Structures are given as C-alpha cells and as structure tokens.
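We were asked to recover a plausible sequence for a given structure. The inputs and outputs are reproduced exactly as logged, with field labels preserved.

PROBLEM: sequence recovery
POSITIONS: 162
GIVEN STRUCTURE:
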C-alpha cells in the first residue's frame, strides 16, 4: 500500500470516528435534555400539593404564607410551568394590592379553620418543599434552589406567627 493510500485510509477512519462520536454526543445531549424535562415536570408535580396546602391554610401568617406561595410559583415558572399562587391577593390596575384582607376559608359551620389545622398544612407543605429542594442541584439550577430556599424560610417564618 502506498503512503497516499494509507493517508486516505487513516483520514477516512478519522472522519468515521468523528462522525460516530458526534452522533453519539448528539444522542446523549438529546437524552439528557429529555431527562431534564422529565425531572423538571416531576419537580413541578411534586410542588403542586405544597402550593395547594398553603392555599388552603386560612389563618393570617402576616404575609409569609403568601410570599412562600409566590416563591413556589416562581420556581415552577423557572422549571417551565406557570402556576398561579391563587391564595395571594390580585393586583389592581394601578399595580397596588387591595386594602381588604381576603376572606378565610370556612371550616365547619362557617367557622374559620382552627390554627392547629392551618399550621399542620404549613408543616406538610414545608416537608414537600424541603424534599423537592434536596433534589435540586444548586450548581445547575441556582435560581430554582434560591426560590425554594426562600419558600422554606417564609414557611418557617409563618409558623413562628401566632
């Protein structure tokens, strides 16, 4: 075999190897993206019950409950799913919040829910958010981790309100 034939053969093998590596890398990237989307969907699914529990808790927690709900909703938005924190008061057209406090959720016979029931709902939501937070990699998802850390702080602050 001549030198040029060897050079052509080596070049062809190199191109084939590079093409195979590129194809494998592209397939790996697609698989990683698919896995990331599935993980993010699972995280949002896991956070929904926490948001619902916070929404159902009807005692005044000096705004901490509502802030935690906003933080969870923002984390979900970063994850690609917009969830409205329904327990917060809507903004008016001027961009300010209404001065009136929202009505409490009725419990039995129209009575407000007992404080310990609301506190239990906050504890349950806290557990859920902490569990989701454990699975968030701070280095790759810092904004999500930050929002969940903020939500955990707000729920803890809410539980200090009596």
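RECOVERED SEQUENCE:
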């Amino acid at each position: 075999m001549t030198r040029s034939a060897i050079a052509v053969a080596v070049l062809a093998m190199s191109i084939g190897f590079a093409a195979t590596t590129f194809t494998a890398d592209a397939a790996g990237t697609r698989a990683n993206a698919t896995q990331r989307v599935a993980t993010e969907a699972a995280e949002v699914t896991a956070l929904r019950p926490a948001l619902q529990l916070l929404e159902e808790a009807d005692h005044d927690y000096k705004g901490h409950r509502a802030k935690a709900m906003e933080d969870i909703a923002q984390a979900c938005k970063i994850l690609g799913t917009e969830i409205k924190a329904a327990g917060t008061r809507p903004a008016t057209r001027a961009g300010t919040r209404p001065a009136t406090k929202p009505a409490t959720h009725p419990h039995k016979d129209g009575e407000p829910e007992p404080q310990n029931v609301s506190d239990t709902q906050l504890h349950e939501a806290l557990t859920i958010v902490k569990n989701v937070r454990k699975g968030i990699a701070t280095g790759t998802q810092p904004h999500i981790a930050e929002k969940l850390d903020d939500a955990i702080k707000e729920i803890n602050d809410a539980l200090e309100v009596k």
